[in-house]
Amino acid sequence: MRSMIKTIVLTTMLTMLSVWTYAQDWKLAKDEDGIKVYTRSMEGSKYKAYRGIVQIKATPEQIAQLQENATTSCAWLYRCQQLKVLKQQGREGWTYMRIEMPWPVTARDVVLHVTSEQLASGGFLRRLKGVPDYIPPVEGYIRVSSFDGTWQVTPKTADNVEVIYEAQSEPGGSVPSWLANSFVVDAPFNTLQRLRKTAESR
């Protein structure tokens, strides 16, 4: 019995330490207009992960509606050129997005497998996973080779939610370091800023 208790305590401590260490890896890169953006290095990749956090005067249902409308979403997603739903099956969806890039960098496109789940808090969690081979390559675009991200929406009051947008990707091809470094800050910041503006203007 004592051995079991020790094992449980040790496992709990190790889990807490792991979570604490992971949290400490995030470094604040921007704190402006009520939006905080953090970045962290990823082992085995030269591209950083990012996490953006903002509070929006809206309900989880309103945020969900804005995300599920492809036309509306493209208007507030950073550098979105085109967004369309390829397939929808219950809580699963497959979407295709074209991403504008500054000259002379070639534009990118990405295919995402999106899964959604309701949370006990009344909010929801969406997981985004890149599936680059889901459709054939498109001429004029470089396919994002890897993408992992989440959207977590948590209600704070009856009409206020916290939105956390987190992602890391391998853009494929060659991307200048200055663009890669700016993108991991600009993407979450501008996306959340535009999402908030869209949600609160309705």
UniProtKB/TrEMBL annotation:
CDD domains: START_1. Pfam families: START (PF01852). Residues 24-202 form the START domain. InterPro entries: START-like_dom_sf, START_dom_prot, START_lipid-bd_dom, START_lipid_transfer. Residues 1-23 form the signal peptide. The keyword Signal applies. Keywords: Signal. GO terms for molecular function: lipid binding. The keyword Aminoacyl-tRNA synthetase does not apply. It comes from the Bacteria. GO terms for cellular component: cytoplasm. This is START domain-containing protein. It comes from Pseudomonas duriflava.
